[in-house]
Design goal:
Its cofactor is pyridoxal 5'-phosphate. This protein is an alpha/beta fold and 478 residues long. It folds into two domains: 59-123 and 154-319, Type I PLP-dependent aspartate aminotransferase-like (Major domain) (Aspartate Aminotransferase, domain 2, 3-Layer(aba) Sandwich); 324-467, Alpha-Beta Complex (Aspartate Aminotransferase, domain 1). Helices cover 47% and strands 14% of the residues. A hairpin with a 2-residue loop joins strand 2 (67-68) and strand 3 (71-72). The structure holds D-serine. D-serine binds at residues 44, 107, 216.
Length: 478
């Protein structure tokens, strides 16, 4: 692939856009500049390849394709069939999964598809049996009323939000918290680690329909074999949301007990985090759930996005290449180097370190809230996000934590030495920031004091650090 081809492709695309709405072309160009210049440490973000990005910008966007491969509600889907089948094949091969459904538009959508599939498969309900016919429109209002009554409020056991679980695992701000009666398992207060005996105890008491594994802010491996045994012991369906660490599964960093695919009945993921694909979701499942999962659209999802499925096929093909395993291992090596760099400078980390792609700093050690720390770091060219820590006294809005992750910087090529320099920059900002006060003199959880000169200096150091590792080196828009 010549670098010239990438530059030509993106330059030409912007020229075409500029002729219609120059402000959009400018914003796209500005976004590249911003991403190139900032130290991106958001654990759930990455940089997709030029091939993946280009696969999304075309006329596949114009096609409706409700249904699944070979069974569409629209005519003329032969080319969509090709890319959807390719994406699913790559996903099955990459993860060793019996079935893959690549239509979900996001992680939330993937989880909704999975929840519906489990409910539809597991709940004994005459109305549901009728709902399982392909023509959902055949259901009368009375059928839907009966179905809602018969489904009732189902039980879900998942990881608590402050321990690192995700909103879509049965929490109130998400529809899953309204569909399901949720109970959480947390982490051991002394170690910050999942206590599997406590999970088993909670499962025995609560008897969930679904046991959910997976997280968005837990910096450790999870033993999925043990969770499956717990699910089996109470007759629950075991679902894993691997959105954050799918790249580590794909790259065979997480194998055996730590690979969810052979252990779970159903696995959901996004495709844009450590997996480094386009923004979207995906469901992998055992054969017995495949039929229900494939009803995701139109049961739960709007029309599939063929252009994004094309990009998923490209990104999954990339993840099947041998160099992806090297990338995945470097993500973890970098996270561990970052953790070491922070620990050696006196930071407090949840669980004392990491064995995946993310690090959770407890910023109460710097006498800051997560919100103050997040903004101070942003002023200094370091992009992170605030996150709760276990038993967080500052709640989910202000928080006491900063979550950082290495998938994006690893894509740029930064290594252990640069992670140590990054730790130094973070530590400098956090030690030089102080909590601010409200107008009436009371302590603020949002306001902070940071010398603007220092913030600028750190931002310049961050840019210098990145200069050796250009983002999209093959793309020159000038
Ligand atoms: N928003 C994603 C994250 O940042 O973890 C998960 O939904």
């Amino acid at each position: 692939m010549s670098r010239n081809a990438e530059s030509t492709a993106f330059r030409s695309a912007l020229e075409v856009i500029r002729a219609v709405e120059p402000r959009v072309a400018d914003a796209i160009g500005a976004e590249l500049t911003d991403q190139r210049e900032s130290l991106k440490l958001i654990a759930s973000e990455n940089y997709a390849s030029p091939a993946t990005l280009l696969a999304m910008g075309n006329w596949f966007s114009d096609k409706y394709a409700e249904g699944t491969v070979g069974r569409r509600f629209y005519a003329g889907c032969q080319n969509v069939d090709t890319v959807e089948a390719l994406a699913a094949e790559h996903a099955r091969e990459l993860f060793g999964a019996p079935h893959a459904y690549v239509q979900p538009h996001s992680g939330i959508d993937a989880n909704l598809v999975a929840f519906w599939a489990v409910l539809a498969d597991r709940v004994e309900s005459p109305a549901l049996k009728k709902a399982q016919v392909r023509q959902v429109n055949d259901l009368t209002e009375a059928d839907w009323f009966a179905l809602r009554r018969e489904l009732g409020n189902q039980r879900m056991l998942g990881m608590s939000l402050d321990a690192g679980g995700h909103l879509t695992h049965g929490f109130r701000p998400n529809i899953s918290g309204k569909m399901f009666d949720q109970r959480s398992y947390g982490t051991d207060p002394a170690t910050g680690l999942i206590d599997y005996d406590r999970v088993a105890e909670a499962a025995r008491e609560f008897k969930p329909l679904i046991l959910v594994g997976g997280y968005s802010a837990y910096p450790r491996k999870v033993n999925f074999r043990i969770l499956r045994e717990i699910a089996d012991s109470v007759g629950a369906t075991f679902m894993v949301d691997m959105a954050h660490f799918a790249g580590l599964v794909a790259g065979k960093v997480f194998t055996g007990d730590f690979d969810p695919v052979p252990h779970a009945h159903i696995v959901t993921t996004t495709t844009h985090k450590s997996l480094r694909g386009p923004r979207g979701g995906m469901v992998l499942c055992q054969p017995e759930l495949a039929d229900q999962v494939d009803r995701g659209c139109p049961m739960v999802l709007g029309g599939p996005l063929p252009h994004v499925m094309a990009a998923k096929a490209v990104a999954l093909a990339e993840a099947r290449r041998p160099d992806f395993a090297d990338y995945a291992q470097r993500i973890v090596d970098n996270a561990q180097a970052l953790a070491e760099g922070l620990l050696s400078r006196g930071a407090t980390l949840v669980t004392g370190g990491t064995d995946n792609h993310l690090v959770l700093i407890d910023v109460s050690g710097y006498e800051l809230t997560g919100r103050q720390a997040e903004q101070a770091l942003l002023d200094s060219g370091i992009v992170t996000n605030r996150n709760s820590v276990p038993q967080d006294p500052n709640g989910a809005w202000y928080t006491s934590g900063i979550r950082i992750g290495t998938p994006a910087l690893t894509t740029r090529g930064l290594g252990a030495a640069e992670m140590d320099q990054t730790a130094e920059l973070i530590h400098t900002v956090l030690t030089q920031t102080t909590a601010g006060a409200n107008a009436d003199g009371t302590p603020s959880k949002a306001k902070y004091n940071l010398d603007a000169g220092l913030a600028d200096k750190v931002a310049r150091q961050a840019t210098d650090l990145l200069a050796t590792y250009p983002l999209y080196p093959g793309i020159d828009l000038t």
